Each structure stands twice: as C-alpha cells, then as structure tokens.
Amino acid sequence: MIINWARLQEKLLRKNTAIKLLLKRLSQLYGGAVRYRLLKSYRREGLRKKVPALVISVGNIVAGGAGKTPMVRWLARHFSAKGMKVSVVTRGYGRRRRNRNLVVLAGDSRNMSWKYVGDEPYMLFRQLNNVPVIVGKSRYRCAFEAIERFGSEVIIMDDGFQHWALERDIDLVLLDCRKPFDNGYLIPLGRLREPVSHLVRADAIVLTRVPGEEIKRRTGRMLNSIFPGIPLFGSCHVPVAIRECTTGIEHEPQFISGKRVLAFSGIATPEDFFETLKRSGAIVIETISFPDHYEYGEDDVIRIIDTAKRKKVDFVITTEKDEVKLTDYVQMFNGLYSLVIDIRFLNEKLFCDWLEKRANL
C-alpha cells in the first residue's frame, strides 16, 4: 500500500481536532529541540570546521520540493564554466545501510548502483560531467576528501542549511514562491524544518517556481518586511528536453505536444511535474504518484505498463530522479522517457553579480 503522507496529514487535520492538538504539541517539542540544537552548536567552540575552499550551502526550511537539486546543478556548472574545480557533497538520503561510509562518485562510478548513494546524488553525478559527487554523513569529511583527492576549489553542499558541522562561505536558502512556509507550522503539524525566524542565518533567499511577476512581488514584499537585509532572487523551473531513457537521445519539450501521456513519479511535489507536462502541450491521460525517494519494484513497473496499455497512451514519462531508479526495468517498457528540468533566474546577471562578489571572485 502506497501512502502519501502529506495528503494523509491534510485529511487528518481537516477532520480530527484531537490529532491536530497532538501534532501541534509535537511541533512545539520539535521546535524546542531545534532551538536547543542551534544554541548548543553556536556555543561549542570548534563545532563548525572550515576547509580551504569556497563552500556554498544550498538548503531550505520546508521539507521537500523546494528545488535544491537543480540549484546545486546550476552552481556546479556555473563555477565549472569559469575553470574552477568543483565538487558536490551530500548526505545521500535513503541510501542502503550496507555502505554508510563515505562514497565517491567520479570517473567510472556509473557502474555503481544508485541504492548505495541515494537517488539524487546519483542523478547529479550523471548530469554533471567531470564534477565529483561525494556522499557521506560528515559533510566535512566529504569536503576534505574533495580537496585532497580532486583539488576542489568550490564545494557545493547539498541540503546544508540544517547541517552545522561544516563552515560555509555562502548560505543559500530556497523557498517555493507559491507557499514559502507551507502552512506555517513545524514538523509534524506542518513541513517547516525549523522556525521561519531562523532565516536570518541565510546570506540570500532564492524564490523557486515563481509563476509570475505579481506573485513574486507579493511574496518578495512579505519577505523583505521580515528580513530586510537579506538579498532576494527569483527563479523558475523550465523543461529543457524530453529524453529517451534507453538511448539518451533528447528532444525538444514540444516533442510531446498533442500526445497522450501517462506520467508517473516518486518526488515531493508530483503535481508540479504533471503540470509542467501539460504546459508543454501533452495530453496527460493518467498520473501515478509514489512517495518521495520511492524504490520501484517489478510489480510497480508492471502496473504502470498495464495502465499505459489500457489507456492507449503514446508516451510513458517520468522524472530524471525516477529514471535513475528504473535502470533494471527500462527494457520492460515499450519506450520510457524522462522530463529534463533546469532552473532559470528571472534576472541571472543580478544573481551572478551578487554571487561572484560574495565569493570574492
């Protein structure tokens, strides 16, 4: 049985006051624990370790779906294009316990299974040519390995806002423009990972999935009134290609325009994926959602294929993150495609000027 915890939470909160009160109390306890941990981290001397490289953290305060991975990819490509040696360090959420030590994705690591590093790190490794991705619980050890082994000058720390141990030079926090603080409550009543007031630690806020200038202005005014000294930048996620999973051949997004599509995904915000396909002109006949970081089995693939046949669709399409987890099953499909997404800044020059000034480049 597949459970969408976010939807289950919303349903329970609408119908059960007792559960809401319980979750509210748990949220208060969670908030107290976060504040204590933060206070403890700042009081302990030497807790944050510095490495001899430019360290940029990409994080958020709302659990899941802010668009951190495309931002990490953009930064890695940006600094690589300047001729700098770049590495990505990440914890590797959901990876198999068999190998919990530091793992380096570089060179011939394409033969390694995604299960031992996590789906997002493996996806980043496939997308970034000549950029090592180093996975481990200790981001300091990962960064040190990147410097020692690859001579990295820039370290991009994925999901680093709540990670205290590695000192960073730039703290970027991503917020979904449409719902920057979710419902305003901490986990488990909401999806906030820490109180909104903690955004004062951010060096810049990047609004993602900006649907239009008016909403950006409205959200921007609200954030500027609370955090007047923090620079604010707008961005959106745009489809750049439809990729054939067996051959790697990429087509323009309009390739699916007017075609009947079955779309499936195991990501934090599947609705955004489905809506992007529709905006690309696809006729989305059926959608199937799995939990975030879902590990597919043969039964899931058979279900998808049977549904596609029954609905008589032209294309079966998934996300890049899901694609890396389907390599063992891709031949079962009569054609499987993935949607390639990239991040675009509303004013890229403005962001680049700020970034390079902040990085002392």
Write structural notes for this entry.
The longest helix has 27 residues, at 17-43. With 361 residues, this protein is an alpha/beta fold. The chain contains 10 helices and 13 strands. The mean pLDDT is 90. Strands 1, 2, 3, 4, 5, 6, 7, 8, 9, 10, 11, 12 and 13 form a 13-stranded mixed beta sheet that branches. It has helices at 5-15, 17-43, 68-81, 119-127, 139-150, 213-226, 270-279, 298-311, 320-323, 348-358, and strands at 54-59, 86-90, 103-105, 133-135, 154-158, 170-176, 204-208, 232-244, 250-251, 260-265, 283-289, 315-319, 337-345. It folds into 2 domains: 54-230, Rossmann fold; 238-343, 3-Layer(aba) Sandwich (Rossmann fold). A hairpin with a 5-residue loop joins strand 8 (232-244) and strand 9 (250-251).
Distance between the termini: 52 Å
Shape field = globular
Number of strands: 13
Q: Please name the CATH architecture of the largest domain.
A: 3-Layer(aba) Sandwich
Low-confidence stretches: none
Strand content: 15-25%
Q: Give the total of domains.
A: 2
